[in-house]
Design brief:
By secondary structure, the protein is α+β, with helices and mostly antiparallel strands. It is built from 2 helices and 3 strands, in the order E-E-E-H-H. A hairpin with a 4-residue loop joins strand 1 (15-18) and strand 2 (23-26).
Length: 77
C-alpha cells in the first residue's frame, strides 16, 4: 500500500479546462499538467484556450519581453 498517492490537486468550486480531454471540469479531475486554470466560472474555463492565445499575443508584442531588440536584455546597447 502506498503511503502517498499522487493525484490531481484542486478544490471543488475551482474550474479548469483539460487540454487532454478538451472539457471543462470542476476541481481535481485530471492531472495539473493537463489543465489550464483555475477559473472562477465554467464559462471562463471554457474560454481557456482563447484566453491563453490572447495573453500570448500580448506578451509577444510587449516591448519588455523583446530580448532580441536593440538595447534590450539580449540585444546589446
Amino acid at each position: 500500500m502506498a503511503l502517498f498517492r499522487k493525484g490531481p490537486v484542486g478544490k471543488p468550486g475551482e474550474w479548469y479546462y483539460c487540454v487532454k480531454h478538451h472539457k471543462v471540469e470542476e476541481g481535481p479531475e485530471c492531472r495539473a499538467a493537463d489543465r489550464l486554470g483555475p477559473y472562477g466560472t465554467p464559462e471562463e474555463a471554457a474560454r481557456a484556450l482563447e484566453t491563453a492565445q490572447e495573453r500570448n499575443a500580448e506578451w509577444q508584442n510587449d516591448p519588455r519581453w523583446q530580448d532580441d531588440a536593440p538595447g534590450g536584455p539580449g540585444g546589446g546597447a
